[in-house]
Amino acid sequence: MLSFDDMKQMYSNVGTVGQQLKIMSDEVIQETFDNDIQTRQCYIYDYYHDDQSDLEYGYNPALSKTKIPVKLKFIVKTYKSMSKDDPEYHIMFEPDVWNSMSCKPDWFVKNYEKLGIKFPIGLYVDIPDDRGIYHRWIIMYSEVANQFPKFGVLRCNYLFTWIKDHDVYRHKRKVWGIEATQNSYTSGVWTGDKMTIFDEQGKFYLPWSQIASELRHDKRLFISMLQEEPWVYRITKVKNTSPKGIITFTVKQDIYEPEHDYVCLDPNDENYGEMYADYYVSDIVPDENLDDVKNGYKIVIEAVNYNVKIGASKVLTAKIFDAEENDVTSDYSTSECVWSFELVKVREIQEELIVVDDDYSSKDGNKFKCKFKFNGDEKYIGHNINATCMIDNMSTEISLDIVAL
Q1: Does the 297-403 domain belong in CATH 2.60.40.10?
Q2: CA-CA distance, 226 to 263, in Å (whole number)?
Q3: Dihedrals φ, ψ of 260, to 5°?
Q4: What is the C-alpha separation between 123 and 66, in angstroms, rounded?
Q5: Which in 278, 297, 303, 358 has the greatest CB count within 10 A?
Q6: pTM for the full model?
Q7: CA–CA gap between residue 321 and residue 332 (Å, rounded)
C-alpha cells in the first residue's frame, strides 16, 4: 500500500490539493462504479438515431444498430407527488468515460456542438427500471453545482405528432417528448360579455432537432388520449435557448375541428391511434414512409456560403448521409430530387424574383445540384430565401441571406 509521501509524490504535478483529491475521488468512483446498485446499462441517441421509436417503453435497445451503450448511475433526487411537478432524476457518467469523452459521437460534434449545444443535453437516453424494462428519457440540463458532473433527466410520456406543410409536399412528424405536469391555476374557461373560450394552458418539451424546430407559433397539435373529440392545443410561445438543446413550448387549448383534424378510432385500421391536427387543410396527402429519416438518413445542402447576392446566380448541392455520417448519395441515383424556394415574408410574385435554371443539373451531370438567380433589388437586402430539397421521403431546408452584389 502506498504511503502518504508516495501519494504526494504521485500527484505533485497535478495542481492544488483540491485537484489532487478530485482525481483520487474519481479513481475511487471508477473502481466501484459497477458495484453500485444505482449503476445501469443505458443507451444514448438523438432523434435521427432512434431506430426503435414505435414504443414508449418495453423495447430492447441492445438490438439497436445506432444507439450508443454507456453505463450510468441513475439517481433519484425528488419523489413523485400529485400536487407537484414531475420528480427530478439525475444520471452520472463513469469518471473515465466522462473525462475522456469517449461516449461523445462524431455526429454530436458535427450537428449539435457547433450550435452551442453541450454534450449530452438534448439527447435521449434509454434507462431500465428495477424490473429491467427500458424507458425513454431526455437529458434536460447539467447540474453544475456538484463536484461530480450530473445531468437532470425526465421521462418521455407523449408522442407529439403534427403535419409539416410545404407547397409541394406534406410530411407526418412524430417526436417523443415530455408533457409537463406543472400545476395550472386557471379555471380552463374564460367568459366575456359576448363569448366563452378555452383558457387552459400547458407546456411540453422536445429535444432540439431540425424536425422539432419546425414547430412554430400558432401551430395546432393534439395533446390528448385517443377519443372521439381529442383535446387540441395551439402553440403560443417557443424557447430554444434555456438550455440550448431543449425546446420549450407553451400551448393554449384550442377547438377540435373535425373537418380539418384527423383521428383514427378504428382498431382494425393500420393507422389506429393516429391523430393529426390540420390534416385536411390541403389536397396534398401527408406521406407515410419515413423509414430513411428514422434510420438516421438525412439530406445536407452544401454551398460555398449561405448568402445570395442580388442579381447573381447561386449553386446548391444536396448530399445524403446515413446514421454513421457516410455519404450515400450515390445510392439514390434513381430518385427524384425536387428543389423549391420561398422568399420569406414577401408578397410579390416570387416566380419573377427567384428564377431556377431547370437545365443546370443535367448539364453539370449531378442531378442533386440546383442553380438559381435572385432578380430582386436592394430593397430585399436583409431578407431571407428558404431553399428546400426533397429526395424520396426526406426533405431539408436552409435559410439564405440576401446581400448586396
Answers
A1: yes
A2: 8
A3: -115, -30
A4: 13
A5: 297
A6: 0.71
A7: 11
Contacts of 302 (CB under 8 A, 6+ apart): 316, 317, 318, 319
pLDDT tens by residue, 291-317: 556 566 888 999 998 899 999 999 999
User: Strands of 298-302's sheet, edge to edge?
Assistant: 298-302, 313-321, 369-374, 354-356
Instruction: Give the residue extent of every domain in the chain.
Output: 19-125+142-150, 158-288, 297-403
Per residue in 75-133, pLDDT (tens digit) is 987 665 544 556 779 999 998 888 888 999 988 998 899 889 999 999 999 999 999 99
Handedness of CA 151, 156, 162, 166 (dihedral sign): positive
As a whole number of angstroms, the distance between CA 313 and CA 394 comes to 26
Greatest Cα pair distance in the chain = 84
Q: Which amino acid is at 66?
A: T
In 3D space, the residue among 208, 282, 209 whose CA is nearest the CA of residue 245 turns out to be: 208
Per the DSSP assignment, residues forming a β-bridge with 347 are none
Q: Cell numbers of 123, please?
A: 439527447
Query: Which residues share a beta bridge with 127?
Result: 135
Q: Which of 398, 380, 381 is nearest to 389 (CA)?
A: 398
Calculate the CA dihedral of residues 33, 35, 38, 41 and round it to 10 degrees. 70
